[in-house]
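Field log, afternoon session.

UNIT: design team B
ACTIVITY: writing a sequence onto a fixed backbone
BACKBONE:
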């Protein structure tokens, strides 16, 4: 799980008490617990319309987080701090 932790633009992935969380860095947003779906895909437990995909470079290092919405919209966020 540690390989996913980092800051992706205005999004953050953190581990607290062994649980992986997604943070949308806007005031008032809660921590969203992530559940692994496999192959670098996760779901947010309370956001049923949203999935997260982590993208790896050719050497296997995670470099990007993509948010996928059920309407087909995506939002891409490059790893800025790990």
């Amino acid at each position: 799980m540690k390989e996913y932790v980092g800051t992706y633009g205005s999004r953050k992935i953190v581990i607290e008490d062994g649980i992986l969380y997604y943070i949308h860095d806007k005031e008032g947003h809660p921590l969203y617990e992530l559940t692994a779906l496999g192959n670098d895909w996760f779901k947010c437990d309370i956001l049923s319309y949203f999935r997260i995909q982590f993208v790896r470079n050719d050497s296997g290092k995670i470099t990007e987080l993509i948010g996928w919405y059920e309407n087909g919209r995506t939002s891409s966020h490059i790893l800025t701090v790990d």
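LOG NOTE: The chain has a mean pLDDT of 93.
NEXT ACTIVITY: expression trials, pending approval
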